[in-house]
């Protein structure tokens, strides 16, 4: 039974991912992959432990139903910055610091000194 479970793990995870925000019930999933609910429960438990899926109770047609949802992993772009010398931040020595504000005439969005400093520390 162990090898059967391992074989089906990826397939079941993929089926849950494919259902997206709609989710899928365990009964429906068991039918679609041809496993018993007992076998499927073991696999679902493993996928939950691996933090690949979650079980959520939702309302459908006025009835509560438990469905499985894939946990989405977003690969956010990484920007590494180095803050070795915080005193280099131009705002700390800027004569406009107390006038500078979003929406004001002097603002961070259009400040070339701040932009240049940010660009200089991005790796
Ligand atoms: S964003 Fe520019 S203008 Fe505003 S305080 Fe910083 S350095 Fe000065």
Automatic annotation (TrEMBL):
Superkingdom, taxonomy of origin: Archaea
Pfam families in the cross-refs: B-block_TFIIIC (PF04182)
Stated name of the protein: Winged helix-turn-helix domain-containing protein
Domain B-block binding subunit of TFIIIC, chain residue ranges per copy: 18-66
Native source species: Acidianus brierleyi
InterPro entries for the chain: TFIIIC_Bblock-bd, WH-like_DNA-bd_sf, WH_DNA-bd_sf
């Amino acid at each position: 039974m162990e090898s059967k479970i391992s074989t089906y793990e990826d397939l079941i995870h993929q089926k849950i991912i494919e259902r997206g925000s709609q989710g899928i019930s365990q009964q429906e999933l068991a039918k679609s992959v041809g496993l018993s609910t007992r076998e499927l429960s073991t696999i679902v438990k493993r996928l939950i432990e691996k933090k690949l899926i979650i079980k959520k109770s939702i309302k459908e047609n006025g009835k509560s139903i438990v469905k499985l949802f894939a946990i989405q992993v977003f690969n956010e772009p990484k920007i590494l910055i180095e803050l070795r010398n915080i005193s280099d931040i131009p705002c700390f020595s800027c004569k406009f610091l107390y006038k500078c504000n979003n929406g004001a005439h002097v603002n961070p969005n259009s400040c070339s000194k701040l932009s240049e400093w940010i660009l200089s520390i991005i790796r």
